[in-house]
Amino acid sequence: MAPSNFGYSIKEAFRHFFRNWTTSFGAVITIFLSLFIIGLFIIGSVLVNSAIGNVEDQVTIQAYISDNASDEDVEDYQDELERMDNVKNVEFVSKEDALEEYSSTISGNADATLSALDGQNPLPRSFRIEMEDPSQVEAMAEKIKDDSGFRKIVDDADPEVDDKDADVAENVRYGQEEVGRLFQLTGYIRVAAVVLVALLTFVAFIFINNTIRLSITARRREIAIMRLVGASNGFIRGPFITEGVLQALLGALFSIGVLELFRNLVIPKVAEGISWMSFAVPMNIYFATYGSLVLLGVIIGLFGSAIAMRRYLKV
C-alpha cells in the first residue's frame, strides 16, 4: 500500500466498518475474547509462576553433622559451602535450634515429648542449604555427598552400617521423590501455558481471516469495477488490510479495558479469599501484557487480512 493511498485506505476502512457494522462488531468481539483470554492467561501464568517459584525456593538440602565433629571443621566446611556455585544461602542449625523447630511441629504434645527426653537432645546439627537454581537440587546433593570436607564431619546415623557411601547419602536429604514430582509438574504447567497462548493466537488469526474473507466475497462486484478502471492490487488491498487492523486493534483495546477492570475489581476480592497466595503482579507486567496484546492484535490484523486477500481476492 503506497503512502499516497494511506488516507484513502483509512477512510474506506471506517466506511466499510460502519456500513457492515454487524459483521465488523462480530469480528471485534471474537478478537476481543481471544485476546482477553490470552491476556488473562498471561497474567494467570505470572501468578502461577510466582507461586511455583515460592514453592521451588522452599526446596532446600539438609546435611546432618556428627556431634563429634569439631567446631573448626564445621566452620571450615560452611565456608566451603558458601563458596560453591549455585549456593544462595547456608544456614547452620544447632542442636538447640533443631529441637526447637521439632517442638514447634508437634505443638500440643511438645511438653510431653520434651519431658520424655529427660533433658537429652538426640537431634544432630545440620546445614540448611538454599540454592540459586532449585531445579539443580539433585546435582548439588550429589556434590555434597562426594565432598571430602563433608565426609569428614558427616553424622554417623547408623553405626552398624559399614558402607560409608550409604551412611553419607542417608545424611543428605532433600525429599527426592517430592522434589522430582514438583519440578515435573511445574514443567508441564509452563509448557501448557505456552501452548495455550499459541493456540488462542491461532484462533484469533483464523477468525479475522474468515471475517475479511466474507467482506471480500460480499464486495466482489465493487472490486471487479475498481480493477476494470485500472486500480492497482495495492490500492484495492489497502482498505481491507486497514479494516482488519482496525478490527484487531479495537478488540485489543477492549480486552485491555476489561483486564483493567479485572485487575481493580476481581483480583482484590480473590486475594481476600485466598490469603495464602500472593496476587501481587508488578505494574510493568501489566503494561508489558497490554503492549503485547496491542502488538499481537495489529499483527493478527495484518497477516489475517493479507492471507485472506491472497487466497480469496481474485482480481
From TrEMBL:
The keyword Cell cycle applies. The keyword Cell inner membrane does not apply. Pfam families: FtsX, FtsX_ECD. Its main location: membrane. The chain crosses the membrane at residues 21-48, 188-212, 245-265, 285-309. One of its GO terms (cellular component) is plasma membrane. Residues 59-150 form the FtsX extracellular domain. It comes from the Bacteria. Keywords: Cell cycle, Cell division, Cell membrane, Membrane, Transmembrane, Transmembrane helix. InterPro entries: ABC3_permease_C (IPR003838), FtsX (IPR004513), FtsX_ECD (IPR040690), FtsX_firmicutes-type (IPR058204). Residues 195-314 form the ABC3 transporter permease C-terminal domain. One of its GO terms (biological process) is cell division. It is a multi-pass membrane protein. It is found in: Cell membrane. Belongs to the ABC-4 integral membrane protein family. FtsX subfamily. PANTHER family: CELL DIVISION PROTEIN FTSX. This is Cell division protein FtsX. It comes from Collinsella intestinalis.
